Amino acid sequence: MKAIRFDRYGAAEVLRLAEVPVPGEDEGEVLVRVRAAGLNAADLHILNGVPYVMRPFQLGMRPRVGGVGSDFAGQVEAVGRGVTAVKPGDEVYGRVDQRGILPAMGAVAEYVRVSADSVRLRPAGLSAVEAAAVPLAGATALQAMRDVREGQRVLVNGAAGGVGSFAVQIAKARGAWVTGVCGRDKVAMVRSLGADEVVDRAAEDATRLRPGFHLVLDNGGDHSPSAWRQVLLPGATYLASFGRRQDVWLGPLGRLLRMMALNLVVNQRLAPLVAKPSGADLDALTRLIEDGHVRPAVDRVFPLADTPAAVAHLAGGTARGKVVVAVEEG
Ligand SMILES: NC(=O)c1ccc[n+]([C@@H]2O[C@H](COP(=O)([O-])OP(=O)(O)OC[C@H]3O[C@@H](n4cnc5c(N)ncnc54)[C@H](OP(=O)(O)O)[C@@H]3O)[C@@H](O)[C@H]2O)c1
């Protein structure tokens, strides 16, 4: 089968279209013929091999992962013994099983082999391209918005990004008043997601907004947690997904330690957002989509052979929503 692979760290140019064996499904596993695969910021970390501190522990001094894409939508080709939830021919979506704290990769390929709990039937009304945009970013946003209650004020920094575009919609579905913060070119898009207020980060410093937020989800990383505290209510929560602006050696580690120390002495909760994959989250996302509360925002779709261009586009930071690779032609 065709699959996108890399064997040295670097930018998008190190990716190549390779011919590799089709994986065989084992007990409890599902083999999926991939129609489309979604890219995430995590793909860039794994491809670039940053932060460097992760290489000896997780990534490998030479790439251990070797593929990109954790999210996919496609058709079940075969199921292993014991799998009853899906059958060959079903249209499904899901995530490649996670290894350690990093999402596993390799969905940008003609086939993926995953555990049965990592796939669900594709939500009614979504194309394969749209469904492939959902799993990682959608689950991360869902977990970030889990405790949001009706009438609360929620701020999403990086609201036009993969995680942010889901977070805005999920917070609205929970009845919150939502402020989205994004770059100038993305203001209209964030408004179209349902945000009640949109802040153009170039025109206004969102950490100086009127205080009163119950939750800030920070996907941007352009201000410190202590700056964001200025807009939080007492007892409110700041969740850091840490954003792209990271130290190449240590990643978010220095910031995380400072934030944890600050968290001990302030009357708000400052916490890292570490999304854990689960089949239950896919169920919840399916319900939100089928009830009309969430629609994946797909920025651009690239053919399989153009995956390096897709990754470069994601890395450029101009995407509005998700970047997806159409693995299947037509
Ligand atoms: N903790 C977890 O479990 C978890 C899970 C998923 C993702 N994440 C992290 O959450 C963050 C957001 O993920 P995402 O999928 O939403 O990423 P994304 O789609 O790239 O969006 C992030 C936003 O950051 C800004 N941005 C993009 N490129 C940038 C660059 N080169 N420099 C500075 N800002 C840039 C953009 O906003 P504007 O142009 O509007 O400023 C963009 O909309 C990432 O850092 C990712 O690693 C964490």
TrEMBL record:
The lineage of its organism: Bacteria, Bacillati, Actinomycetota, Actinomycetes, Pseudonocardiales. PANTHER family: ALCOHOL DEHYDROGENASE RELATED, ZINC-BINDING OXIDOREDUCTASE. Gene3D superfamilies: Medium-chain alcohol dehydrogenases, catalytic domain (3.90.180.10), NAD(P)-binding Rossmann-like Domain (3.40.50.720). InterPro entries: ADH-like_N (IPR013154), ER (IPR020843), GroES-like_sf (IPR011032), NAD(P)-bd_dom_sf (IPR036291), Quin_OxRdtase/zeta-crystal_CS (IPR002364), YIM1/Zinc_Alcohol_DH_Fams (IPR050700). GO terms for molecular function: oxidoreductase activity; zinc ion binding. It comes from the Bacteria. Residues 10-325 form the Enoyl reductase (ER) domain. PROSITE patterns: QOR_ZETA_CRYSTAL (PS01162). This is NADPH:quinone reductase.
